[in-house]
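Tokens for Ornithine cyclodeaminase family protein. Go.
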Amino acid sequence: MSPIYIDYLNRLDIDELKMTDAEIIGAIESSLAEQGRGETVIEPRVHLEPGAARGHFNVLRGSIGGAIDSAGVKVVGDFVDNYKINFPSEFGVLLLLNRHNGAPKAILDASGITDMRTGAVTAVGAKYLANKNSKILGHIGARGTAYWNVRLLDSLFDFDEIRVHSRRPESYEPFARRLEQDLGKPVIATTDWQSCVEGADIVVEASRLDAPTPMLRTEWIKPGALVMPYGTMSAVELSLTDIMSKLVVDDWGQCKGGKFGSLRAHVEAGKLSEQTLYAEMGQIVAGLKPGRETETETILFWHRGLSLSDIALGHAMLEKAKRLDIGQRLRFA
């Protein structure tokens, strides 16, 4: 047997790559198009609750063809109390595999990948589903994926007003200041949900609640807005789907089942079903269904996170790492 090597990128390597906003969004948009064209295999995520703390592990699996031509498995821990020990709430590891023979190809730190690809899915969703002249962003949540949500959305829309909020002032105040420094524009740290969300053209709900609690009120949503809730625990009212012109998800297979998710109650109540679902995001990116068609449509996009996004962004990072000679190569067999 010929030697088998695996590429390894740790967090420092990934930081050194300095992936641009366009590179991140481009990788995710391409993977969504492949999904829409049926060139992928994805299985619903599974969860492991270790019983040792307030948290769980997500295991995501998928395979993608085309130029990427890889299978992958990502394991990411989601522990809400990690801030108390100065740890991020999520740690992740991505394993890429040869989808033709099963041989391992690469191991990457996936904590940063998770944040970037989630922000990119949010941004791609807004590219196709938000009004083109959207100028006000309301963002709930200040940890984990929140930074890349705001950064990548602003790279597409150049907002006139960005509002952020989360449960703790010690979280959302530094978050706003970091965004101001990196984006070069004012960012408003609001003290409550309503002033953050009400009247915004694009609303992102990425809260870190302990249990489902209807914190985001349907009456605050502006007609014609795009709303993207994806917190692990639901923070929206059951009536939210009633005002929507279109309901879009990233993958119906993983949205319709499982214990967690911001619209879990809506699925169980039949408000989000195969009959009420408008499209998966990949169908829209691939041009099989139109996205936003009028300025008056109020649209909801729920993304639970795709293994395909991790695989695509991991592949893009590996290709750039090879060009820049970043990372390590390890003998596997």
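Residues 10 and 109 are 5 Å apart (CA to CA).
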